[in-house]
Write a structure and sequence with these properties.
5 helices, 40% helix, globular, two-stranded antiparallel sheet, mainly alpha
Length: 162
């Protein structure tokens, strides 16, 4: 993965003879979930599995489902740069012969905006969280001699009676 800024990461894709920009930032995930009621990463995996299965079996019977997934994945990648783009418009911009160029572009765009798992250095050190008995409120302050909670500290830091 290159070190391009995740906010500007994008990949060009040719659709219907014109170059568009695929970008999968937060907006793409939000719009996808709002419009389709599904999760973008889940559908990406399903589309990958669907095409892989179709290639292994040589079965083109599921092209409708596959094209629907590809259309939705492309639309999500375009919506950041082309907010008025509709899913119907996207469906009319590609066909079976275009998939060989589209699918790698979609995967590349996803990989540019996804977290790395390759052991790359983190931009900040990881926060170390330690268990503490204070998390539940117990042992969170000094106990009074009588054990009652009626004594509190004043703003000056000296004990005051309630």
């Amino acid at each position: 993965m290159d070190r391009e800024n995740i906010l500007t990461a994008s990949v060009p894709v040719m659709l219907d003879g014109r170059e568009y920009t695929l970008r999968y930032r937060a907006y793409a995930f939000i719009r996808y979930a709002e419009e389709l009621g599904r999760e973008l990463f889940v559908d990406l995996k399903e589309a990958h599995d669907l095409f892989e299965g179709m290639q292994r079996s040589g079965d083109g019977a599921r092209f409708g489902a596959a094209f629907g997934k590809v259309r939705d994945l492309i639309w999500a990648g375009l919506v950041d740069a082309q907010p008025s783009m509709t899913r119907d418009q996207v469906a009319r911009m590609f066909g079976p012969t275009d998939l060989a160029g589209i699918l790698p572009a979609v995967m590349h765009a996803f990989s540019k905006t996804s977290p790395t798992s390759d052991g790359a250095a983190r931009p900040t050190a990881a926060v170390e969280v330690q268990a503490s008995p204070r998390l539940n409120g117990h042992a969170s302050g000094q106990a009074t001699e009588s054990g009652s909670a009626s004594e509190s500290m004043s703003s000056a830091g000296s004990p005051s009676q309630s």
